Amino acid sequence: MQTEKPILYNYFRSSSSWRVRIALELKKIDYEYKPISLIKDGGEQYSEEYTKINPKQEVPALYIDGQLLLQSLPIIEYLDETRPNEYELLPKDPAKRAKARMIAEIINSGMQPFQNLNVIRRVAKETQSEDKKQEWIKFYLTKGFKAVEDILKDTSGKYCIDNQITIADLCLVPQVYSAKRFNIDMIGFPNVKRVNEELEKVPEFVRAHAHHQIDTPQELKEN
Amino acid sequence: MQTEKPILYNYFRSSSSWRVRIALELKKIDYEYKPISLIKDGGEQYSEEYTKINPKQEVPALYIDGQLLLQSLPIIEYLDETRPNEYELLPKDPAKRAKARMIAEIINSGMQPFQNLNVIRRVAKETQSEDKKQEWIKFYLTKGFKAVEDILKDTSGKYCIDNQITIADLCLVPQVYSAKRFNIDMIGFPNVKRVNEELEKVPEFVRAHAHHQIDTPQELKEN
C-alpha cells in the first residue's frame, strides 16, 4: 500500500499537528516532516504553494497512500484502521470507543477552536483588548477541562480510558500544554493532570512533543 | 442489549442535535424526545436538573444502553457500530471513511463552534456590535463551506461520498440550514447545494428536520 514516504505538513506548537505526530510515532510510521510556520511572513499556511496543497490553509495535513488527508481526528482514525499494531487507538468495546471519541471531540471541537491562533487574534482585534482575549481563552478551556475531568473520573486508569493509550490521550497532552501556555489554573482537574503526567513519560509522546521538533525554536528546545 | 427506550436530550434547531436525529431515523431506533430549550429561561441546558444529566450543559445527549453519550459525532459512530443495518454511515473503504469523517469534522469543529448560540452572543456582547457578529459568522461559515466544496468536487455522487449516505451528509443538511438562517451566500458552493437538495428528499431526513419536531414553534412548522 505504502510506496512513498508519508509527508506531514505541520507546525511544532499546533496542538492538532501534535496529535497526529503522536499517532505516527505509535504506529511506527517513518514520515517526512514539512514545517509550515503559522507565524512567519503572516503565516506560511496562506502561501500560494501551501494553498495548492491544502485549500483550507491549515495544519496538519498528511500526504499518505497517494492522497492528502486533513483534520487530525479523521487522520488518526485512518492510521488506526490501516496500520494495526500493538497500539490500538480506539478500544474494542463500543461504549469505551465512544468515551474515547467523546474526550477527543470535547477537546477538538469544544476547546481547540477557541484557542486557535487566528480566532484569538480576531477576538483581540475586535475587542481591542488583550484581557478580553485572555478571558475568552480561559472561559472555553476551563469549560472543556471540566467536561473532560468529569468523564475521566469514570473512565481513567493510567490513561484516559483504563490503561490503554487511545485517541483521547493523543488530544489530551497537547491541550494541557496549551493550557499551561495560556496560564489556565489546572487545580480543579486532578485526573487530567495525573493522566497527562503519565503520558508525558511515554517515549512516543516524548518524541512527538512540541519542544522536540525540527522547527522548534532554539530557546524552547530541551535536552 | 437495549432494554429501555433511548432518550435524546435535544433542541429542534441545534444542528448537532439534528445530526443525531437523522442517525436515529436511519438506524430505525425508537426514542424518547426530551426537548431542552436553548432559549427559554436563559437556556434550559443550564438548569440544575439538566446539569446533573449533562455537566457540559449542552445538547445533544443520548441516553442509550444504560449510559449517557455526548458529542454528536461519537454518538453517530456508536450507533453505526452497535446498530448495523442497511444504512452504513461510514463507507467500508478506509480512504472514503477518512473523507466522510473529514467533511463531518470540518463542519463540526471548523464551522459549528463559531455559530454556536453562546459563542455568537459572546461575540456580540464583547464587540457591542450585531454587524461584527454577522461578519464573524460569515467568515467562518464561508471558510468552512469552501473547504467542504473542494472535497465534494472529488468525492460526491448523489451524496457527499458517492451514492451512500454517510456521517458527512448528516452534518451537511443542518449546516446548510444554519447558513440560510444567517444569510450566507451559497452561490460559490454548487456541490454543497446540489447534495443538500438530494438529501432533503430522503424521508428519514425529512422526519429529523428542525421544522418537524415536537418543540418546533408553530410558525416554523410545515405541513
From TrEMBL, chains A, B:
Belongs to the GST superfamily. Zeta family. It comes from Brachionus koreanus. This is Glutathione S-transferase zeta3. It catalyses: RX + glutathione = an S-substituted glutathione + a halide anion + H(+); 4-maleylacetoacetate = 4-fumarylacetoacetate. Keywords: Cytoplasm, Isomerase, Phenylalanine catabolism, Transferase, Tyrosine catabolism. It is found in: Cytoplasm. Its cofactor is glutathione. InterPro entries: Glutathione-S-Trfase_C-like, Glutathione-S-Trfase_C_sf, Glutathione_S-Trfase, Glutathione_S-Trfase_N, GST_C, GST_Zeta, GST_Zeta_C, GST_Zeta_N. Coiled coil: none annotated. Transmembrane segments: none annotated. Residues 4-87 form the GST N-terminal domain. GO terms for cellular component: mitochondrion. Pathway: Amino-acid degradation; L-phenylalanine degradation; acetoacetate and fumarate from L-phenylalanine: step 5/6. Pfam families: GST_C_3, GST_N_3. GO terms for molecular function: glutathione transferase activity; maleylacetoacetate isomerase activity. It comes from the Eukaryota. Residues 93-218 form the GST C-terminal domain. GO terms for biological process: glutathione metabolic process; L-phenylalanine catabolic process; L-tyrosine catabolic process.
